[in-house]
Each structure stands twice: as C-alpha cells, then as structure tokens.
C-alpha cells in the first residue's frame, strides 16, 4: 500500500496539470486568432459608410457625417490621429475608437 500511494498521487497530479496546460495553449491560440481578426475587422476611415461609422462607440449621426465631410473636403485620412481635426472628436474620443479604426 505504501508503494501504491505515491504512484496514485503522481497520477492524480499529472491528470490535474495536463488539462490546465492544454487550456492555456488553447487560450494563446485563440488570442492570436482574435488579434488577427480584430486587425482585419477595423473600419477604414477613408471608405467607411455613415452606418459603419455609427457602430463606433460615441459616434452618432452627426459625428459620422463630420468624419465623411472632413474626408470629402480635406482628402483622405493619412493617420488615425487626424480624427482629432474633425469637429466633435477630441483626444478622449480618439482613445475610445483608435483601436477600432485604421487608415489605408
């Protein structure tokens, strides 16, 4: 009995750690997939429609129109930070949406 107990303890310990390690590797793979997906799903400020721009947090009809008016009058956005030049969008708003938009 004394020889069996350490073996059972070892098997129990191993069986508890294998799912955790597997779960961690799955989380890492899933995080990589989500990151690549989020980059692909960013709105391009230079082609986004009025409806698409309104999906951004804090952007309603008037701010979406202001973004479109800006790109029509000034030209395409060269960088995301340029959004602060749009009426009604400041640094606080930019920090909320900059991870959701891109410029091509």
TrEMBL record:
GO terms for biological process: DNA repair; protein secretion by the type II secretion system. Keywords: Signal. Residues 1-23 form the signal peptide. One of its GO terms (cellular component) is type II protein secretion system complex. The keyword NAD does not apply. The keyword Lipid metabolism does not apply. GO terms for molecular function: DNA binding. Gene3D superfamilies: AF1531-like domain. Residues 51-70, 81-100 form the Helix-hairpin-helix DNA-binding motif class domain. NCBIfam families: competence protein ComEA helix-hairpin-helix repeat region (TIGR00426). This is Competence protein. It comes from Alteromonas genovensis.
């Amino acid at each position: 009995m004394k020889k069996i107990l350490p073996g059972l303890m070892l098997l129990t310990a191993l069986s508890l750690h294998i799912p955790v390690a597997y779960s961690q590797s799955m989380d890492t793979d899933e995080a990589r997939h989500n990151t690549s997906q989020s980059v692909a799903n960013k709105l391009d400020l230079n082609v986004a429609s009025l409806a698409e721009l309104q999906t951004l947090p804090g952007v309603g009809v008037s701010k979406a129109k202001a973004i479109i008016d800006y790109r029509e009058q000034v030209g395409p956005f060269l960088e995301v930070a340029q959004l602060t030049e749009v009426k009604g969008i400041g640094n606080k708003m930019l920090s909320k949406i900059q991870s959701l938009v891109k410029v091509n």
